[in-house]
Specification:
This protein is α+β, with helices and mostly antiparallel strands and 167 residues long. Helix content is 40%, strand content 14%.
Amino acid sequence: MRRGINGEGFAALLPVLEDDQAAVPELLRNLPTGPASPFAGLSGTHFARLVLLPPFGGLPALLFFAAEFDAFVGGFLETLCTAMPSQIEEIFQRCHRYPGTAAPPEFTRWMLAHRVRPGFTVIGNPGVSADEVERCLLLRQQIIDFALETRHADAAELHRRWQRQWP
């Protein structure tokens, strides 16, 4: 993926095959979340969400997919095919006219054909890459852990441990 900050993200509404509507909720429930999520392994991904929208007003059930990431949209979508093909197959094969991951450009065209523009982004740290956010969160946790471990230390011990932790 090309690096840089993407300010537009991606969202799509994908029609679910009628015969697969009942299987999608369980599939989504069983997807790992947090650091174990298949999307968490994609460098530069701020977040990704999948939500099943039930049939409404004559529309079929729709799988809503949204993601915020540090790449151009086409590159991100193609990376889904190459970095996590089995998970992408498992999720999106239940959608109408799903082309598969074997040809990433076809998958990208399919996703773009279902794209919706939400009109806003939810990146909590605009202008900061996902890798930078992750590094800051790790540093924050290290400082919290240090504070808890040294809460009863006197000034000399606190100073000694600080120097050892961050020379």
